[in-house]
Amino acid sequence: MLDGLAPARRRFVLGVVGLVAVAIVCGGAAWWVSRDEPVDPVSQDERGPVLLVPGYGGGTAGLEVLAKALRAAGRDAVVVHLSGDGLGDLDAQARVLGEAVDSALGDTGAESVDVVGYSAGGVIARLWVRDHGGGSLARRVVTVGSPHHGTDLAGLASDVAPDECPVACQQLQPDSDLLRALNARDETPAGPAWVSMWTTDDQVVVPPTSADLAGAVDFSLQSVCPGLTVSHGDLPRSPVVAAAVAAELGVADPAVPGREICATS
């Protein structure tokens, strides 16, 4: 059929056909990359090591207090060290978490891990589960004071001093591209059991209800312990938080804890 066409028109038709072929191939590749990876949930009966993920800035001092409390309760607990200054791309930090998980599983011979994400560490944990294979490795994910829907402080920083708002700050703005995509579908991807606990006294995650996580066992500490005062920065150091996290990482199904955790304050 092409033989009857003038050379210039034949080249044009062949070029169009080539572009269509490239579009089909690329479209198929995009579909293959974007389709959901299969998830094989791990047993809830076998507890492996606990990995604690720091928040914005990567500070570990507070989480070391929580890790010590978990070790005293008989758990193998390790604090993950984020890359760089902890202010970079949260998705890149999710890959760091994945590497730490692989190392912990290799060291212990366990088949699964529990993950505790403090502040932005909870967002990192969700990214790891959703995009980096964590759904088949995490038994439970507990987030503590995490800005799952952003924090107004990050939005303010971006407006007032954009040069002082690094990548992670930009990603923690309400309705950022990263959070919009993370929350667009199931906020608690398949695989682990999910828990979100937070404090109504939070002045970093603003509003504190940004920590609400659809599909998780979700509660404020004050709903369990009325009158409790605990700031965002004190969450990983709080004995009440330590007791609540230890309870949620047990063998029983996650549930809003009873007031017995309040006696530890």
How does this model look, in words?
- This protein is α/β, with parallel strands linked by helices.
- The chain has one domain: Rossmann fold (3-Layer(aba) Sandwich), CATH 3.40.50.1820.
- It has helices at residues 7-34, 61-72, 90-108, 120-131, 152-160, 167-171, 177-182, 221-224, 239-248; strands spanning 50-53, 77-79, 113-118, 138-144, 193-198, 217-220.
- Strands 2-1-3-4-5-6 form a 6-stranded parallel beta sheet, sandwiched between helices.
- Strand 1, helix 2 (61-72) and strand 2 (77-79) form a beta-alpha-beta unit.
- The chain starts with 6 loop residues before the first helix and ends in a 17-residue tail after the last helix.
- The model is unreliable at 12-35 (pLDDT under 50).
- GO terms for molecular function: hydrolase activity.
In summary, what is this structure?
This is Lipase. This protein has 265 residues and is α/β, with parallel strands linked by helices.
What are the salient characteristics of this protein?
single chain; alpha/beta; Rossmann fold; 40% helix; globular
Oligomerization status of the protein chains: single chain
User: How many strands in all?
Assistant: 6
By DSSP (H or I, 4+ residues per run), the number of helices equals 9
Instruction: Compute the separation of the termini in Å.
Output: 84 Å
Find the CATH superfamily. Answer: Alpha/Beta hydrolase fold, catalytic domain
Pfam families: Lipase_2
InterPro entries: AB_hydrolase_fold (IPR029058), Lipase_EstA/Esterase_EstB (IPR002918), Stereospecific_Lipase (IPR053228)
Organism: Nocardioides islandensis
Keywords: Membrane, Transmembrane, Transmembrane helix
